[in-house]
Write a structure and sequence with these properties.
Blueprint: H1 3-14, E1 19-22, H2 31-34, H3 41-59, E2 65-68, H4 71-74, H5 77-93, E3 97-98, H6 108-118
Parallel strand pairs: 1-2, 2-3
Helix pairs in contact: 3-5
C-alpha cells in the first residue's frame, strides 16, 4: 500500500481529513513545559519533543496525520533535528501518517525560521 492509500485509509478510519501541523515556536510553548528544561539547544529540543508528544497523545485517535515543518526544527541544530526525528517516530508509533513539510521560504514563518537558523548566535 502506498503512502496516499495509507492516508486515505486513516482518513476513513477517523472520519476526519484533518492534519495537525507541528511547527513548534519555543516562545509559544507553555511555561509548564519550558520551565523543566534549560534554554540551550538541547533543552529547547526536549521541550519541543514533550509538547509534540502531548499533542500527538491527545489527537492520534481522531486525527489521521501530522505535518511537522522541518525549518522549525532545523533552527535548533542537531538537537532540533533529533526532535524532528523523535516526533516523527512517535507519531508513527501511534499509528499516525507523517507528512514531512520540507518546503522553503514559501510563507513568512518558514522564511523567518531559515533566517534564524543561519544567523543564530548559539
Amino acid at each position: 500500500m502506498n503512502a496516499i492509500d495509507k492516508l486515505i485509509e486513516k482518513i476513513k478510519q477517523t472520519n476526519n481529513p484533518t492534519v495537525i501541523g507541528l511547527d513548534p515556536r519555543y516562545e509559544m510553548l507553555p511555561k509548564c513545559v519550558t520551565s523543566k528544561y534549560s534554554q540551550d539547544l538541547e533543552g529547547v529540543s526536549k521541550a519541543i519533543i514533550e509538547f509534540n508528544k502531548t499533542l500527538i497523545d491527545a489527537t492520534y485517535d481522531i486525527i489521521p496525520a501530522v505535518k511537522p515543518q522541518i525549518a522549525f526544527y532545523e533552527m535548533y541544530g542537531i538537537p532540533g533535528m533529533n526532535a524532528f526525528k523523535e516526533t516523527c517516530e512517535y507519531a508513527k508509533s501511534k499509528g499516525m501518517i507523517v507528512i514531512a513539510d520540507s518546503k522553503r521560504g514559501d510563507i513568512g514563518s518558514t522564511a523567518t525560521r531559515i533566517f534564524q537558523c543561519i544567523f543564530r548566535k548559539n
